[in-house]
Structures are given as C-alpha cells and as structure tokens.
C-alpha cells in the first residue's frame, strides 16, 4: 500500500480547524454583547475576516445584517472582506456581485440574483449557531 503524504490530511484538518475557530469567535462575540460592550466596525470586520478564512461566506453575509442591528455603518473595506469570503470558496461570480450593490433610501441592497443564491445556500447548509442579538 502506498503511503500518503501529510498534506493529504492537512487540508481537511485545516477546514475543520477554521470552522471551529469561527464558531468560537461567535461565542466570544456573544459574551462581549452579554457584558454590555457595543461592537464597532473593527469587531465586525474581524468576524467577517474569520468567516472568510473558514470559507463560510454565508456567515459573513449574516454579519452584515447584525451590523445593521447594531447601527454600525459598513464601509468599502467591509464589503471587500465579504467579497474575499466568497472568493475563498471559489464563487467568483458571487464575489463580484457583492460589490455591485445599490443604495436605496439609505439602505444597502444586494443584487436580486445574489440574494437568491444566498437563500439557496442557507437552505442547503445547516447552520449550527443561532445569533442571540436583538
């Protein structure tokens, strides 16, 4: 039998480790909020960056919604991080769609086809964490 290289096993371990770290980051974020600390733009961008590293762009998108709940304004850098999250999964069309947003009545609206794809992604994936914000 042929011996496998260490890199054969490193990639799956890396994916699992990234997912676990992202989950841990969410728990830390929840605790921060429980203690009455208001998150700022840097906090949210750090979470989005972590989701990009964990190849979980749908959670990066959810973070944008949570930012709105906390009345934290997104910047171009925020949207670039979400774009990178989609690119990390190999979905370059969706990544470019992230930046093609429009402002209507002071609210950012994503393209309709991008929203449809995001909803399909949510239906196909079970998300183990539910946000406790409100």
Describe this structure in words.
This is Pentatricopeptide repeat-containing protein. The protein has 6 helices and 2 strands; from the N terminus they run H-H-H-H-H-E-E-H. By secondary structure, it is mainly α. The chain has one domain. The longest helix has 29 residues. The N and C termini lie far apart (56 Å). The C terminus is likely disordered.
In whole angstroms, how far apart are the ends? 56 Å
Total E-strand runs:
2
Shape: flat
Helical content, roughly?
55-70%
The helix-and-strand class reads mainly alpha
Stretches where pLDDT is under 50 for at least 5 consecutive residues are 101-118, 120-134
**Cα Rg:** 16 Å
Strand content: under 5%
Number of helices: 6
Mean pLDDT comes to 71
H and E order: HHHHHEEH
Short descriptors:
134 residues; mainly alpha; two-stranded antiparallel ribbon; 6 helices; 66% helix; 4% strand; disordered C terminus
Secondary structure topology:
Layout: H1 6-34, H2 41-53, H3 57-69, H4 76-88, H5 92-99, E1 102-104, E2 107-109, H6 112-124
Antiparallel strand pairs: 1-2
Helix pairs in contact: 1-2, 2-3, 2-4, 3-4, 4-5
């Amino acid at each position: 039998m042929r011996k496998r290289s260490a890199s054969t096993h490193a990639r799956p371990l890396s994916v699992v480790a990234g997912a676990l770290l992202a989950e841990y980051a969410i728990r830390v974020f929840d605790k921060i909020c429980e203690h009455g600390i208001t998150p700022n733009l840097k906090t949210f961008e750090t979470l989005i960056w972590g989701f990009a590293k964990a190849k979980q762009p749908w959670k990066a998108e959810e973070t944008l919604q949570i930012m709105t709940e906390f009345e934290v304004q997104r910047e171009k850098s925020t949207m670039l991080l979400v774009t990178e999250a989609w690119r990390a999964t190999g979905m370059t069309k969706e990544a470019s769609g992230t930046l093609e947003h429009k402002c209507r009545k002071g609210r950012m609206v994503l393209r309709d086809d991008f929203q449809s794809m995001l909803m399909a992604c949510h239906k196909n994936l079970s998300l183990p964490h539910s946000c406790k914000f409100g």
